[in-house]
Amino acid sequence: MSPPADDFVPPMPAAPARPLPMLAGLLRARRDLLSIFPADAYRRQVFTTRLPGRLILVANAPEVVRDVFVVKHATYQRKSRFLEDALRPVIGGSSFIAWGDDWAEKRGAIAPPLHPSGLARFHPCFVQAAEELAGDFAGADGPVDVAAAFAAAITRVLLLAVFGPSVPRAEAAAIAATFTAYQEAAEVVDLLGMMGLPDMLGWLTRRRAGRLAAALRARVAALLRAAGPAGGTALLAALRDARRDDGTPVLAGERLLDEVVMFLLAGAEGAAITLTWTAMLAALHPATADRMAAELPTAPPGFDDLTGLVFTRAVVQEAMRLYPPVAVFARQALGPDRIRRWDIATGDIVLAVPWLLHRHEALWDAPHVFRPERFLGDAPRRRPRFAYLPFGIGPRICAGAAFGMAEVMAVASVVFRRFRFALAPGFTPRPNCRLALRPKGGMRLLVSRR
Q1: Which residues of the chain have pLDDT under 50?
Q2: 420 touches 99 (CB < 8 A)
């Protein structure tokens, strides 16, 4: 029998009793960023680490996050160089890592077709991918890596949304698997660069990651060529048709490829990770899974029906609190500043860490405990606005946030109504944060019909 939800603490890395020495912390961060935060990081409002030639400051209170990421957006609009270097081989100069006027122009092209008012037209894509996934789960014999399964299913959603039904379903699994391999290969923490030294040792890692990035971009480029200048869906047409004041296209050639790759990868990542951790929570707490199943309809819901799935949405939101897909937001100061008592120099790094904010002892009661009730009724309105950041912060908040939530809810409404989940024998879930907060080694669960 599972413990009451009020007492259930799902897996998390053990926090060091005290801050790690600089080199030890950097070495551990290369494997998992979350494991470096000491116990008092879940109580502090601001804390810093000094590296050679660089300060790293963690904004760990809602008012500080607002001041840095919203009020001073112009100073902190650029993502860190280390994140740029990690992602540029695969998403190029897309809006995810662009900044300044370049970002504003690209954001202006991608945001309108993803506006919440138009999401209903994507609902058939959500349902089709969910039904295909349900067919896979129904035929499963033995443990399933649901992390890979959800990644393929959500990538399938996005391929349908961009290119239509002509793309073979296997393409989604291939793209998702290649991106998983890329994340495992990419250098997330540039150890020598963080210490102000030239990187002469990472060539082997970069070479393997570069091959995977090239293979992934080649796949998407082939899909764009196959679609032709007038093919694909209305979403792809909207991206192609975005124009500057002089009539030239905002997105064409490599710039269009960058945004499509970014949409496929970033769009799939958050939703797939959220569904993965939700499935783990359902496996570890069957009473919650049963309550979700009782709320969900026996037939796939229509788009308007999703708003009525109140408890299921709360479980999903609590999954994103405990396991935020992007657990660390990093910004590189474009000019000098002062945050509380710390002077910030150009090039210093300021972080907001949803993993810490979502578990902060001053912001959440029993912060490590699984409680979907935190998102029921008027409870969300009683929290500080910047205590919960599942989709980002300020002007750079995810343009596809509403799209992502809608696809998660549609897939969840099919999967959690029809199936039970349990941990595979001998498997222990381990949160691991590199580019995103994924389970280390996947998520091996037993899947059975209800």
Answers
A1: 1-5, 201
A2: no
Map residue 259 onto helix, strand or coil.
Answer: helix
Which pLDDT value is given to residue 4? 45
Using DSSP's 3-state secondary structure scheme, residue 61 falls into coil
Domain boundaries, the chain: 5-449
Phi, psi of 382 (to 5 degrees): -90, -5
Contact 370, 285 (CB under 8 A): yes
- The torsion of the CA quartet 184, 182, 404, 322, rounded to 10 degrees, works out to 10
What is each CA distance from 265 to 44, 52, 213, 275, 391, in whole angstroms? 33, 34, 12, 15, 15
**Residue type for 314, please?**
A
Spatial neighbors of 61 by CB under 8 A, at least 6 apart, are: 45, 46, 360, 362
> Which tokens go with 92?
């190029």
Distance of CA 377 to the CA centre of its chain: 26
| Among candidate residues 60, 109, 422, the one with its CA nearest the CA of residue 243 | 109
- In SS3 terms, 355-403 reads as HHHCCCCCCCCCCCCCCHHHHCCCHHHHCCHHHCCCCCCHHHCCCCHHH
Q: Does domain 5-449 bear CATH number 1.10.630.10?
A: yes
Query: How far, in whole angstroms, is CA 133 from its chain's centroid?
Result: 20
Query: pLDDT at position 54, please?
Result: 86
Say what the alpha-carbon torsion angle 369, 311, 396, 30 is, to the nearest 10 degrees: 40
H helical segments located in 92-202? 100-110, 123-138, 146-163, 169-185, 191-194
Q: What is the pLDDT of residue 17?
A: 78
Phi first, then psi: give them for residue 286, nearest 5 degrees. -60, -30
Q: Which residues of 327-366 are buried (b: 16+ CB within 10 A; e: fewer)?
A: bbbbbbbbeebebeeeebeebbbbbbbbbbbbbbeebbee
Could you tell me if 276 and 320 are in contact, meaning their C-beta atoms sit under 8 angstroms apart?
Answer: no
**Matching residue, tokens 């680490």:** 49
Rounded to 10 deg, the angle between the 254-284 and 286-295 helix axes is: 110
User: Taking the model in full, what pTM does it have?
Assistant: 0.93
Q: How far apart are CA 17 and CA 359, in angstroms?
A: 17
Q: Is the dihedral of CA 295, 144, 321, 79 positive or negative?
A: negative
C-alpha–C-alpha distance, residues 417 and 296, integer Å:
6
